[in-house]
Each structure stands twice: as structure tokens, then as C-alpha cells.
Amino acid sequence: MLKTIKPELLADNAFKMIGKDWMLISACTKKYDEEGKIITGRPNTMTASWGGIGVLWNKNVATIYLRPTRYTKEIIDSTDSFSLSVLPQKYKTALDYCGSHSGRDEDKFQKTKLEVDYMNGTPWIKQARIVIFCNKLYAQEFDPNCFADERICNQNYRKNDFHTMYIGEITKVMVESRDIK
After folding, report:
1. In terms of pTM, does the model score above 0.85?
2. Which of 45, 49, 67, 175 could form a disulfide with 179 if both were Cys (CB 3.0 to 4.6 A apart)?
3. In the prediction, which pLDDT does 180 show?
């Protein structure tokens, strides 16, 4: 069972949580009803092993990076929120699948049997042991002229497919009760 905690109480090591365990970035397309009100559309998720958690502009933030070819990028560009879900190790196959298949072409939730739920219109993964909800604050594509070490640029962007960096204010954190210290 997940319990809401303050972001400052998140006990997991961010380097392990993001870089080794991986996370699922989830967002949802928006649809509009006849009156112009936003209604929830189709959710999508993708695996990520790059990101960060910290403080910026006096706010608790999470940073994610998306390549231009990712369907999730299209969705996050058109919405204001996203979630980050960290799953237990037993879901590594599902994480592999979500990182190598596009939600543009299929319903990854159906294929992986991952269950989606919503918090104020933002999708999240029910099997997660940690969920971080974010409101988008900032987005900017990496500029090849700004790399201090051009080897990083050459090694990671041979196709000039530069990531867009998204900074989201952490609005809510939920963790499994056993993960609370």
C-alpha cells in the first residue's frame, strides 16, 4: 500500500533509483469535451534511466530527459504534468519492454500487464513502490554548442537527436509503507 510523504523524506538513493532500478515516466494526452474542458485522454509510459531529483527555484524538483523521437515527449509537450514510477525488481521485463517499444504504435499497459491509475488526471503505475508526481515548470532542448566536453556530445548525439530537459515541481510523493524510514 502506498502512503503519501513529503519529498524530503524520500529515503531511496536517487542514483540507484533512477540509474540502476530505472523508472517509468508516464503522461496522458489531453482531449477536450464540447464545452472546451480538458478530459483525460490516452496514457503512455516509457522507461528512463536518466534523471535527477533536487532543489531549484526554492522548489523540490525532478528532472527528466526525452529524445525527440519518443511518443512520451509529444505528450509531455502538450500537458502540464507527469509522474515517475519506480517499480520493484520483479518488473524489470516490463521496464525493458516499455523502453524498447513505442506507445505510438501500441498500448504498452496491455502488453506488459502494468496497471495505470490517475491522480488529478496524471497517470501513474499501480505496481510502483515509489511514485513522484510533477507539474512541468521548464523545458529546453540541449544545445550542442553548450557542451563543455564535446566527447559527450559526439558519443551520445551522433544523429543530432538532442534530448529535451524537463524540470517538474514535485507535487506529491507516494511510497510503499515498508519503504518509509
Report:
1. yes
2. 175
3. 56
